[in-house]
Automatic annotation (TrEMBL):
DhaK domain segment(s): 7-327
UniProt keyword Ligase, yes or no: no
Domain DhaL: 364-477
UniProt-annotated stretches for the region Disordered: 455-477
A Pfam family hit: Dak1
Gene Ontology process terms (BP): glycerol catabolic process
Name of the protein: Dihydroxyacetone kinase
Chain coiled-coil ranges: none
NCBIfam families for this protein: PRK14479.1
Gene Ontology CC annotations of this record: cytosol
Gene Ontology molecular function, alphabetical: ATP binding; glycerone kinase activity
Entry keyword set: ATP-binding, Kinase, Nucleotide-binding, Transferase
Amino acid sequence: MTRLFNDPATFTEDMLAGFLDANAHYVTGVPGGVVRATETPSGKVAVVVGGGSGHYPAFCGVVGPGFADGAVVGNIFTSPSTREAASVARAAHGDAGVLLITGNYAGDVMNFGLAVTQLQTEGIDARYLAVTDDIASAPTDDIAKRRGIAGDFTVFRCASAAAEEGRDLDGVEAVARRANDRTRTLGVAFDGCTMPGADRPLFTVDAGTMDLGLGIHGEPGVSSHSMPTAAELAELLVTGVLAEKPAGTGIRIAVILNGLGRTKYEELFVVWKTAAALLAEAGYTVVQPEVGELVTSLDMAGCSLTVMWLDDELERLWTSPADTPAYRKGRMAATDATPRCSETAQATSAQIEQADTNGAAAAHLVAAGISAIAAQMVAAEAELGRIDAVAGDGDHGRGMVKGTGAACAAADSAVFQGGGPEAVLTAAGEAWAAKAGGTSGVLWGAWAGPARWPNAASEPPMPERYPWRCASTPSPT
């Protein structure tokens, strides 16, 4: 159970404030997340990672030299909003473009993809990649639908190292895609995780059993098995991952045995003892393995095994130095880094057009309606979370409360500034999408703020409007 919090509704904000204070020599806060405490050098591609919180060290814990330039931090298990993703990418960007990377979840794909579109309209060369390493979430003939779990780390690591070496944006993106294509993960859970303030876990595992194929947002596994010994678990994970060896790959591999939050390091080392022997027996050479917590799921009990099949370039990048709050390897070369300015340019809000008497009266009615919606969401928060937990991560109630609360405040502000109903809906929609995050934040924000969306009759086809969209549907969580 997640026991330490003040107000569950502000858990992410409180966590981020403490993290920034403790790691001020590495990172600085910007709207939506964190960036390195030093400016991105001229000619360097910025790599921005992100997703919902609850996975530390991912995502903010890997921002620093040799690793990511920024991390977008959403609510627990909830995609950050489009505004937050664009804000962090804008702050991290130097002059050589930016690559955004997340796990393959519908909310992340939608919000980060829209952020890329927005950044491109501002003249920033931005790209996006969704990691698809989870072999349990879709079959081999539909890999594009797989989730991103602990394999996020290998892709983040190699892409960031390539950017640190000075590769251009095309080169960094190519490395990230190759790392993703060569990475496979399989995980197990012994018990579910509990959201701050909740009195029960998102899912439970029967005594004496484990779930195979869990997600990192509190999703249960795809099948239940009797609880194995450490050696039996190692064999299950190694056999499962090696069965998915990508075509054309060799025998040198990077391996992560990842703890999910409540499994002790000592237990992981016991599992690794057998896993290492099995990998050697299979003819593989393991290059600088990682055993520990790298991509967690709050207090979930469980672990996962990730394998990335290396080539010469990926091996060099995997073993390169890095220095971040949560991950350090080797020694970074000294540089004349420039401390980041405290003020970072952000997109400005449009001025609110003044309404006439009738428009002002209508605006009051619209704001009152949004206030009523917000009140209903507060009353329904627990039930919405319970329903969502059946199929996903149980965050929907909290996201809707945050989104509608922000929409209500923005609507009231627009009314106070003299705006009409269109201005009220636009402000409410932007605030809803920005604070709720996830897929629902985008959809409800679009509904509340129709003035922000082009006329459907004049829009180009979907692929032309949103070229970042995946060819296949990502995980819905």
